[in-house]
Design goal:
Blueprint (H helix, E strand, L loop, with lengths): L5 H29 L6 H13 L14 H13 L3 E2 H10 L9 H12 L2 E5 L4 E5 L8
Antiparallel strand pairs: 1-3, 2-3
Helix pairs in contact: 1-2
């Protein structure tokens, strides 16, 4: 007998309920289309919003301009005045409302910044700490 994870089941129910509501909105629009009547803008907006919510990276959170999160990381490390762990950087960005969406996104950003030579990664007993590179980065 399989043991069901209660949270996973609730998550699946929520997922399907969202799709059912989108289908209901579509069913409301179909008769209008058959009669060649214009579809009210509020219906189209609601349908478009429902379609965007579940897709990863497409309207689920706040879109950031290019370099905005990197700038916030630099500001967080500068404000602290000492090297920070990824968790400390994530906390600082969350306080500024500049945190990237995914749980591992901060690690990806720090990896990119390390490759570009903007931050330096140092492994310690407590974990990895990140500090600013004084020279201003790598030259291309």
């Amino acid at each position: 007998m399989a043991i069901l994870n209660k949270q996973a089941v609730k998550k699946q129910i929520k997922y399907y309920e969202k799709h059912i509501s989108t289908l209901r909105r579509l069913l409301e629009i179909i008769p209008l289309l058959k009669k060649a009547k214009p579809v009210p803008k509020r219906m189209l907006n609601a349908l478009a919003a429902a379609g965007r919510k579940g897709r990863r990276g497409a309207g689920g959170g706040v879109r950031r301009r290019r370099g905005e999160v990197s700038s916030a990381v630099v500001e967080a490390i500068t404000a602290a005045g000492r090297p920070l762990t990824a968790g400390e950087i994530k906390t600082a960005l969350t306080k500024k409302n500049a945190s990237p969406q995914g749980a591992s996104a901060i690690y990806s950003i720090l990896l990119q910044m390390t490759k570009r030579g903007l931050v330096r990664k140092k492994e310690t007993a407590e974990g990895n700490i990140y500090s600013l590179v004084k020279s201003g980065g790598k030259k291309k």
